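Task card 7
Instruction: Convert sequence to structure tokens.
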Amino acid sequence: MKMKKLLSALLVCLMLLPTLTGALAASETDTDLTADERYERMEAIAEFIKIYGIDSSRDDDPVMRALLTMFEDEDLYNIFMESMLGSYDSHSMFIPAGTYDSAFPTTESYVGVGITMQLDGEYAKVTDVAEGGPADEAGIKPGDLLLTAGGVTLRGKELTEISSLLRGEEGTEVTVTVQRGETELRFTLTRAQMGTPNFSSRLVEDGVYYMKWARFADTASYIQFVFAIQDMTENNCRSLILDLRGNPGGDLNMAYNVINRLLPVSVDFFGYCTKQNDEKIYRSVTSDGIGPALNKIIILSDGDSASAAEVVQVSLCDLGYAVSVGEQTYGKARGQYHLTFTDNSAAVITSVELIAPSTPDYEGVGLTPTYEVHNETTRHPAASCDPVPTGDMTLGFVGDGPYRLNRALAALGYLDSEQVSYTFTLSTLAALISFQQDYQLAVSPICNVYSAQALNSALESYADQTVTVDLQYEKALELAREYAAQPQQYVVDELGNVTNLIDD
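Output:
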């Protein structure tokens, strides 16, 4: 009926052509059309074209012609596709050509020299150096001011410009000059693959193991995870800290396999709903019961823990095998299919509803941690250090001077905090020599005026920086120690095979 009325209105307008422009102008200013009304108008105009258009016919499709004409412009095509997919939910989207790999990387890696920096006046200051990276091995230190890279003066440049000069092809070299205190230093760095691995692990202490998943992706990371479980059990660990902070998700099947390797019993640990045509299909995922019977898993999570990371957390917590520490998670209880195309574009379509064992639908809500803990940002320890005296100090000296020296070396990372005392010890000497080598000073067993001045300059460069106190990890370690003190619930034979001592 609406279509007929619109067509009738168009016919009337056709017969009243002399006043058409004015009438349309008046109607447009008097009425704000809704999206539905605009769509109906488009359909009516398309129908009118088919009936009365001199170059059209009943078999014509004006809307299709319009889309094809519009799609000749790639930007308009991208806008339309994003609008179509985004109209369904916040997770469905269109990824333009050439950008899928960067939009959904399988790892947070890049080729560069391994430094983090921030602008400090007209120059970029190094704030962190990746352990084992090219910059670290060459001797670049936090606090250094970047002067040149590849012969290009960096004064006044934005961080993005500096980053592009430091990055490049793996194995290529870049020469960097820095200002360290009063000294200008020159380094030749060989660019290498840098970044955060998807998986890492370590033995923390007796009974406590640590694993971090940055993203559930790549088979090599999963294999490392399997070997880490073996290392954990061979060290007879009773508790595990599983760090999922900042984990955006990734491969859902890999997350299922991670859970399967951690659960010591056979149980339905998660459910999901998919749709085929108009029928919704519900399925559950069951573990094999092959995991070691740990006393408890402590999961670290934050607001950037999402999707597959939330599946791991809620499954293990709902079933009683884990507790969580940190902050409310992102809240993504939906999964997507990724239709990728040869031009590196993709259509991401929400197609799976994730269903936790007992937690209600957490889509858009997130998971509440068992223990809510927020990290703190505080001033760098260098800010609270008094200047190191410029008079000579050496092994065996006692007093305020050695105390200031020890505090400075500890603030700069050369001494552990528990080694700070009023005495110039062997530990002080070893830390001082390391500092002298890093700052290209003459190596000496004496903290002389040159070493003192360099130390004070380094303290000054750090004083305006901040550091994050990881209270979340501290709480997780506290809990892990408590659970590790309880009797072990599995045994390991000489071949590394695990036998759980609990009822399945």
